[in-house]
Input
Amino acid sequence: MTDIFPLSLLIGTAFIFLNKLLVRLGYKNLRDMPQTLHTKSISRLGGIAIYASLLSVSLLSTSDNYEFLRIMLFCSIPLFLIGLLDDFNIQISPPVRMIVALPTALMCYFFLGIEAYSIEIPLLDELFKYKFFSIIFICFALVGMTNAFNIIDGMNGLVLLYSITICLSILFSAELLKTTEIYYTLVAVLFSILGVFILNFPLGKIFIGDGGAYILGLIISITVIKIYQINSLSPWYVLLVLIYPTTEILSSIFRRLISKLSTTEPDNYHLHHLIYKRITKIGIISERVKHSIVTALIFSFYFPFVFGANYFSDDHLVLKFMCVIFVVFYFIFYLLLAPKNFRFNL
Output
């Protein structure tokens, strides 16, 4: 299992040197997009290092403990490929991406049994009695969460550290790990992320790209949902573990709707962007330092809630209360950091 770490690190390092070679040949991987903050050519293929290391070890291993991971990686192929197209600078519109991602969500439902049984809201819970609604709901949730992970992938180490935090917090909660398949999946994903994480944070030598953000969003979401199913937990457990990207994507949709902007176009008004801009104003010049501060600050914000979700995993009331507290604090921080003219437009 620990072979995953050196394999991920090796593949990631290879892409770093490949990018340097391409720069010398005149090809630079730079994006002129609102959310882009870096100014140097940096490989966006870290996601391949994560996916390839997981796939290689799970396929080469004869252990049945990797069966869940193998099936999940198989199901994720359409989603991963659509992300890679963007990483190779082949532009795909957001609606097309979501449509292509649907087969992945459907396969996760049929081959892994990933579904939701309720959201603990009485009237809406009645709809879960209908299989069609259950399928639509889980597809919408998985596609939305993969996009949410892509949204928070805007700083060195941000989405990687968030994923590491989730893996470790669950692994430390031994009572939730009732199957060895989930344990092996979490440890494998953890080591695959670590191989890229040390290259990405704080030096920013490689990015995971859309492919990496999508695959992490899918794997983390599916694993958390599976834990919810196995342990018969409250759906608020899943929400609290994934509260940061969930709040980020919902606030982005809300912000764009009231500002009469397209809900699918990227912008630079996410929480990490606002913190970055505020840090820049106080005179910090180094990009690496700014990225590190933003990642550290946001980590200190979501960590208590991710840890709390696993510590209070069977306490429905506490889970709901913590979800509300996170959302309240998120919007307080957001409004304090948002530009005055932007707040006025709200």
